[in-house]
From TrEMBL:
Residues 3-96, 115-286 form the Carbohydrate binding module family 17/28 domain. SUPFAM superfamilies: Galactose-binding domain-like. GO terms for molecular function: cellulase activity. InterPro entries: CBM17/28 (IPR005086), Galactose-bd-like_sf (IPR008979). It comes from the Bacteria. This is Carbohydrate binding protein with CBM17/28 domain. GO terms for biological process: cellulose catabolic process.
């Protein structure tokens, strides 16, 4: 709803495009909403006011953002304004109203924990969100680069928390007998399908929670993706940005080849980025 104020009654038409990660930043309006001269009421200061209401039927982006399972924030609104009978218009008291509804989050089947994780059995092979993950969107199996991948949506916030990990997706794999062995690296294929990505970096961290190391052992080595340099990335036939991520297992302190690692965490940290879109992982494994 918008208060429309004129110095004298006239015809006003307004079409709106709400923008945010939830609608990919653009959804065309169906129509403009009109106010006619007889809709305006004279105010004590001599101006004329009417309230213009734009619904989801007029501007579908409102519903698309409202029903998004990743980000329901309207970060900008584009207005197309037309008038007949006046050249000056004042807008005030923008309001968005509606009712809150719970949007169910449906993950694909968890399956049995497995390394290597290739997701070809139509399950998540044990991967789930850590309980303290800032992102809890649906974990689904999606096609990427000709194979099945574990995938999720994320939109990093525009206003950054003081702790960058506070907005990070954290994937967790619990697996009996999880050990490094004689392997030197964690490897996985990582893909991005951005709705928005032009600045900052995504820093991928690796950690384990072995009881023998006080339930925390984090690799000092990280894998960093520079979003300002996407043009240098390999692009798949299906239009995804492809990275072969590798993190040095020898940079993890206080573990040995036969240490029971208990569970493995992958943390996708936002470092002053504007990323919004879909992420994918595949072929997760320890390698030499």
């Amino acid at each position: 709803m918008i208060d429309v104020i004129l110095t004298s009654p006239a015809t006003v038409a307004i079409a709106a495009i709400p923008q945010g990660p939830g609608n990919g930043w653009w959804t065309n309006p169906v129509r403009a909403v009109r106010l006619f001269p007889n809709d305006f009421i004279k105010q004590v200061d001599g101006t004329y006011k009417a309230v213009l209401t734009i619904t989801a039927e007029d501007s579908p982006g409102l519903e698309i953002i409202g029903m998004s399972d990743t980000d329901n924030t309207i970060q900008n609104i584009v207005l197309f304004v037309g008038t007949d009978g006046t050249d000056v218009i004042y807008l005030d008291n923008f309001k968005v109203s509606g009712k809150k509804i719970e949007i169910p989050i449906i993950h694909d089947s968890l399956g049995e924990a497995k390394l290597p994780s290739d997701f070809e059995d139509d399950t998540r092979q044990g991967w789930k969100w850590s309980s303290d993950s800032a992102v809890q969107t649906a974990l689904t199996l999606e096609e990427a680069n000709g194979s099945k991948d574990l995938s999720w949506k994320v939109a990093y916030p525009e206003v950054k928390p003081s702790d960058p990990w506070a907005s990070a997706p954290r994937l967790d794999l619990w697996m009996d007998g999880l050990k490094r062995g004689n392997k030197n690296f964690l490897f996985f294929d990582f893909y991005l399908a951005p709705d928005r990505a032009s600045e900052g970096t995504i820093e991928i961290n690796l950690a384990f929670q072995p009881p023998s190391a006080g339930y925390w052992a984090q690799a000092s080595n990280t894998y960093v993706i520079d979003l300002s340099d996407l043009d240098s990335a390999t692009v798949t036939n299906d239009g995804l940005y492809h990275y072969e991520a590798k993190i040095d297992l020898n940079s993890v302190p206080n573990i040995e080849d036969n240490t029971d690692l208990r569970n493995m965490l992958l943390i996708f940290v936002d470092v002053n980025s504007d990323f919004a879109g879909r992420m994918y992982i595949d072929n997760v494994n320890f390698i030499e």
